[in-house]
Every structure is written in C-alpha cells, then in structure tokens.
Design a protein that fits this description.
With about 90 residues, the chain is mainly alpha-helical. Helix content is about 45%, strand content about 10%.
C-alpha cells in the first residue's frame, strides 16, 4: 500500500522525483506543440476551403446547388438509355 505524505513532510527531493526527465519533458512539449499546430493548420485550411464557396460545409447555396454533378451518356450500356447524372462531370 502506498502511503501519502502530508504537505509538511514533503521534501524538495520528493518534488523533484515527480518531475519528468529532461528528454521526457521536451518530448511531451513537442507532442503538444505538434497537436496544436495541426489543429491550427486544419482550421485555416477549412476556412480557405469554405471562403470561396460562401457556404458552410455540407450546405448548399444558390451558387453551389449542383456543384460536381453533370450529364454523362451511358455509351457502353447500349442505345436507348437516358443520360445519367454522375458526380465529377461538372
């Protein structure tokens, strides 16, 4: 069973033992910094992506009603079939 010292019994040596080693400290700091930077970059990219469209993600506006859809004829399926709407033929 682990005993917990009272505050008046804690020594500076006890406090220093709780500190991570220098390598561990800097490794943890780098990981936090990478996570923060990744979040900021993803947010900036999302803003750049939404700005020209003038629409919130997954929302349609008058300008962005049929974005990415167009007509394609099914030549390989035979004659007499109506053109189908497929993504990417914009």
């Amino acid at each position: 069973m682990v005993s917990i010292k009272t505050l008046d019994a804690v020594t500076p040596g006890d406090l220093w033992r709780e500190m991570p080693l220098e390598e561990e400290f800097w490794a943890q700091a780098r990981e936090r910094q990478v996570r923060l930077l990744k979040g900021q970059l993803e947010g900036a990219l999302e803003e750049e992506q939404v700005e020209p469209l003038a629409a919130v993600r997954y929302r349609r506006t008058e300008v962005r009603q049929d974005a990415g859809w167009g007509q394609r004829s099914p030549d390989s399926l035979g004659a007499g079939l109506a053109p189908a709407r497929q993504p990417g033929s914009g």
